[in-house]
Write a structure and sequence with these properties.
Length: 249
């Protein structure tokens, strides 16, 4: 009988406690778990700025046209500018176009001093590029906030090159045969290819890193030693690594 009485008391206690528990559950508020954010949408127009460093090689044929040992030397310098473009996205594939314009202090040069006996040729060839630009296509793969892409297109570069040259021979002192500083500026056109990655910091702000190789072709420069014309076919290439930030509208 005691066992029956005990069971009855426990059952009654449980029944009395149920309404209180139900009221407590009803009083509590629950926050819905946030929905997973969709993949970043890379479609749209964007503008931005970037800065980087370039290094490369200048070459010419002065050894053939004038017998001067200045056919090849290294060039390097900082570059920075602005870019703008438009992307379309289909699934995870992103494609579009981009243009950029950079100010540049890419430069280099080579000095020479050669000759035998009493005749010598002394001078230097200098090179610099003050601005560069490109128009390129882009094709990439989107992975959430990341975009990995390849790019390629037409590249332009302003190039100024000058030749400082003195020819002399020994006599009663030094007899200068010819002396002159000559140079000119040209716009070279070539190609550029590279790869890069972008990260969407927010819906609008995007960070980027890019590496490109550019070959700007060649043009004939008309140098002089103060008397005779010295034509030379000048060309250069470079590799540029840059970091930048873009705003997507």
């Amino acid at each position: 009988m005691n066992k029956t009485l005990t069971a009855a008391v426990m059952g009654a206690s449980i029944l009395l406690a149920l309404p209180a528990a139900a009221a407590d559950l009803a009083a509590r508020t629950y926050t819905k778990a946030p929905a997973l954010s969709p993949l970043t949408n890379w479609s749209g127009f964007y503008v931005g700025a970037h800065v980087g460093y370039a290094w490369g090689d200048q070459s010419d044929n002065l050894s053939l046209t004038a017998g001067l040992p200045a056919d090849h030397f290294d060039i390097s310098g900082f570059q920075g500018g602005a870019h703008a473009g438009y992307n379309w996205q289909v699934g995870r594939t992103v494609f579009g176009f981009e243009g950029d314009f950079d100010g540049s202090n890419l430069k280099g040069g080579r000095a020479f001093d050669q000759g035998t006996g009493g005749s010598r040729v002394v001078g230097s060839l200098s090179f610099k590029s003050d601005w560069q630009a490109s128009i390129r296509g882009r094709l990439g793969f989107a992975a959430d906030n990341w975009l990995f892409y390849a790019t390629g297109g037409v590249a332009f570069a302003e190039v100024a090159s000058s030749l400082d040259l003195t020819r002399y021979r020994s006599c009663d002192g030094i007899c200068i045969l010819s002396q002159g500083i000559s140079g000119q500026s040209e716009v070279l056109v070539g190609y550029t290819v590279g790869v890069g990655a972008e990260y969407a910091i927010t819906t609008n702000w995007i960070a980027r890193g890019e590496v490109r190789y550019s070959d700007f072709g060649a043009k004939t420069f008309a140098f002089s030693d103060g008397g005779s014309a010295i034509p030379s076919r000048v060309k250069f290439n470079q590799t540029n690594a840059s970091l930048g930030i873009s705003y997507k509208f």
